[in-house]
């Protein structure tokens, strides 16, 4: 019975250490590295260059008609 209690405590301690080490090693969202990667300096936002799709409206309206 004592062995089972010891093994239970060891397993619980291992779980706590595992969860805490995962928290300690994770990157903080408020770190300067995260902010720099999220918004790189010197880059402009990309604008989508989409062609005018209205010339295909007649074709697609025929497909959708029943």
Q: How is the main sheet built?
A: none
Q: Roughly how many Å is the radius of gyration?
A: 29 Å
Characterize the overall form. elongated
Strand segment count: 0
What is the averaged pLDDT score?
79
Report, as a whole number of angstroms, the end-to-end distance: 76 Å
Helix residue percentage = 55-70%
Question: H/E series, N to C?
Answer: HHH
What fraction of the residues are assigned to beta strands by DSSP? under 5%
- What structural class results from the helix and strand content? mainly alpha
> What is the count of DSSP helices, taking H or I runs of 4+ residues?
3
Taking pLDDT < 50 over at least 5 consecutive residues as the criterion, the unreliable ranges are none
Overall description:
The chain is elongated and about 80 Å long. The chain contains three helices and no strands. The protein has a domain at 1-38. Helix content is 59%, strand content 0%. With 66 residues, it is mainly α. 0% of the residues are buried.
Would you kindly provide a brief summary of this structure?
The chain is an all-alpha fold and 66 residues long. It has helices at residues 2-25, 32-38, 57-64.
Write the layout of secondary structure elements.
Elements: H1 2-25, H2 32-38, H3 57-64
Question: Any key phrases for this structure?
Answer:
mainly alpha; 3 helices; 59% helix
């Amino acid at each position: 019975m004592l062995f089972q209690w010891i093994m239970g405590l060891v397993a619980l301690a291992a779980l706590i250490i595992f969860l805490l080490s995962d928290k300690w090693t994770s990157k903080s969202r408020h770190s300067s590295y995260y902010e720099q990667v999220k918004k790189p300096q010197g880059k402009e936002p990309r604008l989508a260059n989409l062609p005018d799709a209205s010339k295909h409206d007649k074709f697609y309206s025929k497909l959708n008609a029943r």
